[in-house]
Amino acid sequence: MPSKLLPISNEEKKWVNKLNKRRGWIYHFSRGCIRNVISNMTGLDPYQIPLKADPGKPPLLQEGWGHISISHCSDALLIGWSAEKIGVDIERKDRKLHAHKLSKRFFHKYENREIENLTSSQAKEEVLRRWVVKEAAIKWQSGKISNNLSQWIWDNNSSFAYHKKLKYKVKVYKQTYDQWTYAIALNGTTMINEPIICIS
Fold first, then answer.
1. Residue 180 is assigned to a structural domain of this protein
2. Do 56 and 99 belong to one domain?
3. Is 97:149 a contact under the CB 8 Å cutoff?
4. Domain count, the chain
5. Does the reported pTM lie above 0.85?
6. What's the rounded mean pLDDT across residues 92-112?
């Protein structure tokens, strides 16, 4: 985490003032980091980055700048930037959750059959792995979790996830690093073998 919040646009500052203190801090932190990362990679001033990132909506870059996706947990921020559509999600591996309940409520019955006989710790690990993959796919889709979580199907350790209803197919990269689990979703036809991961 930086020692101070990084520069954001005047429009983004207005959004910060409209949000409560916690959400405003997260919003400023994440948008400032996006601008800083792209600034470092392009040499442009952070204020010149053509980013539109309203709260609660997927961040957008001006046409020709590619696609961006962000995810954060209690102590980490994941920024995905790609020439093609992208979705990312990150969670702490020790996140508290009721794995079997979540699975029965949000996952497809095919997936539940794999999870129902696991121990609590095994189920938690498996549900978290599937959750980050599904949420990354939903962000790729620009969809809503409530409508799509049970529709995305991911076979354990498969390179692809599928949307049962809409027939979408995404290429999935799921990794763990230190205390985090994260996933990246890209177009199913992408020629990218492995995304470049930069950690700072």
1. yes
2. no
3. no
4. 2
5. yes
6. 87
Q: How far apart are CA 134 and CA 163, in angstroms?
A: 10
Same domain as 95, residue 176: yes
**Pairwise CA distance, residues 162 & 160, whole Å:** 7
The answer as to whether 192 is a domain residue is: no
pLDDT tens for each residue of 180-194: 999 999 999 988 878
Q: Which structural domain, as residue segments, surrounds residue 93?
A: 88-187
Please report whether residue 56 resides in a domain.
yes
Tens digit of each residue's pLDDT (9 = 90 or more) over 11-64: 999 999 999 999 999 999 999 999 999 999 999 999 999 999 999 888 999 999
